[in-house]
What we know:
CATH topology: Double Stranded RNA Binding Domain
Low-confidence stretches: none
CATH architecture: 2-Layer Sandwich
Shape: elongated
Strand order of the largest sheet: 1-2-3-4-5
Mean pLDDT: 90
Distance between the termini: 56 Å
CATH class: Alpha Beta
Number of strands: 5
Structural class: alpha+beta
Oligomer: single chain
Number of helices: 2
Helix content: 25-40%
Order of helices and strands: HEEEEEH
Amino acid sequence: xxxxxxxxxxxxxxxxxxxxxxxxxxxxxxxxxxxxxxxxxxxxxxxxxxxxxxxxxxxxxxxxxxxxxxxxxxxxxxxxxxxxxxxxxxxxxxxxxxx
Length: 99
């Protein structure tokens, strides 16, 4: 038995296109309006998503504003995808509380 914790099971390769579809569905479920590659809340951009080179490039607004400042992240695994969704949920909750 191996002592390094490797059980001989490789993680499936990351499918950026399928992950993008899943992310879009999740953001729509969070009541965000999809416009092209962006998602909005009350007419203000919240997120932008694009597939580039087999990964998803994501931009999240720091604050809910007409001209937002962006935080950028790269989604290259299912774990990154979950982190991005969690961050969007946190920001939406914070913006709702601030109003």
